[in-house]
């Protein structure tokens, strides 16, 4: 419900509507929690607390409005803003009403002080008020400007404080009512509520709109007593501010005297209370809902365990994946590429000099059997990370981002990046992961970016008959990961099982042996067709090529 409407509903109850002054969002929240009906944005309090300024129109309307907005946003109850004299003449009031209403403030109070004003409670202050017609013009302007019919405009008269007497106070109030005021705030600084009672008595027969009072100077009276004399709205304007000053002074002295915070601990709000007030539990909930929920849950496993004699002595003291290529190691380039595609949960399975693999944000898993087992065993050293979708990367392959981002978009359960235009003569053709595809029947050129079913994979394939080469980059959906795990478990739990082709058993197998076994078991394995944009480093010649490529290109 609109807060102005809510405020008007409060006025229909048979009890005083009780407001307490707030100077910031926190004090407003405490006001609401204490059970007050609405918040009074006190010009006295905001000037003092927000800027350490006297209540004398020193703060601008914008500063007051900013605070009122913060207050209004912090609470569900209506907020009535003390807008002093309206910050100028009617032009200022027109803008002010527009801005305050737009901010969701339920109503404003405008007083008949001139601009600039001084707080009427200051000692010796005897304001010269603007004449009643000018003030009536302010109220009329405010009422004409509001867009919601329930926006609430309180006309406040300082006539009693200015010493103009009861008759003049009554005349002014009636004029403001005639100009459209929704309520009259009759202010007094006498020590007794006598003049307020007298005003109420007269108003009963002369006025129609509700009366508002601020019993700062006659504090002995309760809001219920005021209600019985004819006041509908009671404002406890600055007591909360003053309480906070006393509490801070006392605590600061205690801590300073004791030279420790311990002495204050028992008399101050626990940290948990501040956490609660600012909604810290909601912060955690939001984080789970909006941040973690949208973070890529996909992890990556980089297998970099092997020792390749072809590269000796380059890899004598470090794993191949740490060899620098154009200023960054192969592994760093891989990790950065994964990060750029939103994958931050990365594990590297190391073997040969695994202790050297230390990269921020990357978990190192060691395969102590790296000399005996094949690549597959190394991959399954990270089986704990295969309980959800993941990307699998050979530790010696560098690839362009486009390949990875296309692979991540694949909706297939198991997708292998396959170069459809491999250089069949380069390097040792026998040690490469050749692929044949189901669909390749015609002479039509391969569709780059397309997904096709893999018919067979492995080193056993005749390079001249291969449709492409697996580049060492694969993605698995949740289901694909489950299939991979289950199949591996079944194969390795049998005594010395044979792979479909070649490898002595699955303990020593290559990744492609398991992929081939999946195909044999009629599981779908797909290729993502690519053309170039990658390089694997198996020899000095590859390493030299990689250097050439990455010292003249933008980093991969
Ligand atoms: C305020 O709180 O700013 C008021 C009320 O205007 S009083 O200070 O009591 O005048
Ligand atoms: Mg004020």
Walkthrough of the structure:
By secondary structure, the protein is an alpha/beta fold. It folds into two domains: 3-240, Phosphoenolpyruvate-binding domains (TIM Barrel), CATH 3.20.20; 299-550, Spore Coat Polysaccharide Biosynthesis Protein SpsA, Chain A, CATH 3.90.550.10. 38% of the residues lie in helices and 18% in strands. It has an eight-stranded parallel β-barrel, surrounded by ten helices. The protein has a five-stranded mixed β-barrel with strand order 16-19-17-18-20. Strands 10-11 form a two-stranded antiparallel ribbon. Helix 2 (25-33) crosses helix 4.
Task: Give a topology summary.
Elements: H1 3-10, E1 17-22, H2 25-33, E2 38-41, H3 43-51, H4 61-74, E3 79-82, H5 90-102, E4 107-111, H6 132-145, E5 152-157, H7 165-178, E6 183-186, H8 194-206, E7 211-213, H9 223-229, E8 231-236, H10 239-258, H11 262-265, H12 271-277, H13 280-292, E9 299-304, E10 324-325, E11 328-329, H14 330-340, E12 345-350, E13 362-366, H15 375-380, E14 390-394, E15 397-399, H16 401-409, E16 414-419, E17 434-437, E18 451-458, E19 468-476, H17 478-493, H18 511-520, E20 526-530, E21 534-536, H19 540-552
The structure holds sulfopyruvate (SPV) and magnesium ion.
